[in-house]
């Protein structure tokens, strides 16, 4: 299988963590910049986004679909099992995905060339979502199962914030989440840290 990913993408990181933790062999990671290798990616994913997984049967996207696919085929669904009959966990999952969207959108605003083309309104709105969402996760993560897709998404989100938005200083606002992150020690985390 071939996985199109990028070093920085938090969505791709979830998949990079997952296949390592499932012990899948034969995954070739192809690192691309979605904004530069557009033609290559668009052949596989009309949206031109990473992650995208090429299997013998199909081209799979987005990260939620790929995570389900890998878990179903190699993990007997154990990374998603807790979400199936617990709406609270399913909502946490949606919240994590939405917070990644806010963090990536905030990055896009920050990289706009001209200061004048940056939207103060959207920057503030994304920051607001991130602070409210992290506060919610700080209380709910206490009841998550030890391993599972929620934990992978939270690692990917928090370390993306460290990487792209250190000025948010999320550890100061959310020490519980900071302690939670310190307890995550699987070797796949070090191996996939954004750079
Ligand atoms: N909903 C998608 C989001 C993927 C996404 O937005 N990836 C970004 C990188 S962090 C990307 O490839 N952006 C390129 C673009 O927006 O054209 C997922 O969960 O996989």
Report on the architecture of this protein.
The chain has 195 residues and is α+β, with helices and mostly antiparallel strands. The mean pLDDT is 94. The chain is globular, with a radius of gyration of 17 Å. Strand 3 (52-54) and strand 4 (59-60) form a beta hairpin. It contains 10 helices and 4 strands; from the N terminus they run βαβαββαααααααα. The protein has helices at 10-22, 38-44, 63-74, 81-84, 87-110, 120-140, 149-164, 170-173, 175-182, 187-191, and strands spanning 2-5, 28-31, 52-54, 59-60. The chain has a 4-stranded mixed β-sheet. The protein folds into 2 domains: 2-74, Glutaredoxin; 82-186, Glutathione S-transferase Yfyf (Class Pi), Chain A, domain 2 (Up-down Bundle). The chain is 58% helix and 7% strand. Glutathione is lined by residues 9, 11, 34, 48-51, 62-64, 104. The site of glutathione has 11 residues, from helix 3.
CATH class of the largest domain: Mainly Alpha
Bound molecules: glutathione
Order of helices and strands: EHEHEEHHHHHHHH
The figure for the number of domains is: 2
Strand line-up in the sheet with most strands:
2-1-3-4
Poorly predicted regions: none
Shape: globular
Average pLDDT figure: 94
How many helices? The count is: 10
**Number of strand elements:** 4
Distance between the termini: 24 Å
CATH topology of the largest domain: Glutathione S-transferase Yfyf (Class Pi), Chain A, domain 2
User: Strand count, sense and closure of the main sheet?
Assistant: 4 strands, mixed
Helix content: 55-70%
Reported CATH architecture of the largest domain? Up-down Bundle
User: Structural class from helices and strands?
Assistant: alpha+beta
* Percent range for β-strand residues: 5-15%
The value of Rg in angstroms is 17 Å
């Amino acid at each position: 299988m071939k996985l199109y990913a990028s070093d920085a993408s938090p969505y791709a990181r979830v998949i990079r963590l997952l296949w390592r933790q499932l012990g899948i062999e034969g995954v070739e990671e192809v690192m691309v910049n979605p904004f530069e290798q557009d033609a290559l990616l668009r052949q596989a994913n009309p949206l031109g986004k990473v992650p995208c997984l090429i299997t013998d049967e199909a081209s799979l996207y987005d990260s939620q679909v790929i995570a389900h696919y890998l878990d179903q085929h190699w993990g007997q669904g154990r990374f998603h099992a807790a979400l199936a009959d617990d709406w609270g966990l399913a909502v946490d999952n949606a919240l994590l995905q939405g917070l990644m969207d806010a963090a990536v959108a905030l990055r896009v605003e920050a990289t706009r060339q001209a200061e004048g083309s940056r939207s103060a309104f959207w920057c503030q709105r994304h920051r607001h979502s991130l602070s409210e969402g992290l506060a919610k996760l700080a209380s709910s993560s206490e009841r998550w199962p030890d391993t599972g897709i929620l934990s992978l998404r939270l690692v990917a989100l928090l370390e993306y914030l460290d990487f792209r938005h250190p000025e948010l200083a999320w550890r100061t606002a959310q020490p519980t989440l900071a302690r939670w992150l310190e307890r995550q020690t699987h070797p796949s985390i070090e191996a996939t840290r954004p750079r």
